[in-house]
Specification:
Strand 1 and strand 2 form a beta hairpin. The chain is globular. The protein contains five helices and ten strands; from the N terminus they run βββββααααβαββββ. The strands form three sheets. It has a four-stranded antiparallel sheet with strand order 1-2-5-10, with no helix packed on it. Strands 8-7-6-9 form a four-stranded mixed sheet. The chain has a single domain, classed as paralog of FGE (formylglycine-generating enzyme) (Alpha-Beta Complex). The protein is of the alpha+beta class.
């Protein structure tokens, strides 16, 4: 496994090998939502992706702010995910550091790590009986090992098993912003929101599920659509870096 440390931020990156894969989920996948894509082939060049989501410590070092401070359902600490970050703020972080948000294709390709199953360790959502849910908990922070046992916040990064590419917390803990547009905002949506929200034309893609979600929302193909100014205790981001060939 090839790793790289980004000097400015201290973020650890892993090399994601180029190759072919599938983006999306079959109609039979348990938990599939209507806005998920049908399986389609993708081909990507190698790139670097951060091993963990951007943490509070890294965000504070680069941006000098603490957007999560005093917010509900947040545990503060350098190794916890930076949350209450909207899409524009994540983009500003990227501009300051020379990094980027992953495309949706990059995110899912990296998450799957050469697997075409619901979860990157090789299981499918329809197979999750009690035993397999115990196995699931070795890999994912989700509602049954956080919210339902009294932990009402995201967990420190890197506490669960990584996928085959060496990436941690790709499923669960916090949803992750992607670069992509999800859909056009319909007229009348967010009518009661602040004025700057009403100016937006498109929602953005988030991937991976969070600490308050169930198993079927923490699949490799699971996707959410959020207003780019949305913030929350279960919404963060990780970054990618292009390779210089």
């Amino acid at each position: 496994m090839h790793e790289y440390v980004h000097t400015q931020t201290g973020l650890e990156f892993v090399l994601i090998p180029g190759g072919q894969g599938l983006l999306g989920s079959p109609p039979t996948e348990l938990g599939r939502k209507e806005w998920e894509k049908s399986p389609q082939p993708i081909k990507l060049q190698p790139f670097l992706m951060s091993k963990y989501v951007v943490t509070q410590g890294v965000w504070r070092k680069v941006m000098g702010t603490e957007p999560w401070q005093g917010k509900e359902y947040v545990e503060e600490g350098a190794d916890y995910p930076a949350v209450y970050i909207n899409w524009y703020e994540a983009k500003e972080f990227c501009q300051k550091t020379g990094l980027a948000l992953p495309s949706e294709a990059q995110w899912e390709y990296a998450c799957r790590a050469n697997r075409n199953t619901s979860y990157y360790w090789g299981e499918n959502s329809q197979d999750l009986d009690y035993f397999h849910c115990l196995e699931f908990q070795k890999h994912v922070h989700f509602c049954r090992n956080t919210w339902e046992i009294g932990q009402q916040h995201a967990s420190k990064v890197g506490r669960k098993l990584p996928n085959a590419f060496g990436l941690h917390d790709m499923l669960g803990n916090v949803w992750e912003w992607c670069e992509d547009i999800a859909r056009k905002i319909r007229r009348g949506e967010f009518a009661d929101a602040p004025r700057d929200w009403r100016k937006e034309k498109y929602e953005r893609v988030c991937r991976g599920g969070s600490w308050w979600d169930e198993v079927w929302d923490c699949r490799c193909a699971s996707r959410s659509m959020e207003h780019p100014r949305a913030k929350g205790s279960g919404l963060g981001f990780r970054v990618v870096k292009a390779l210089d060939f």
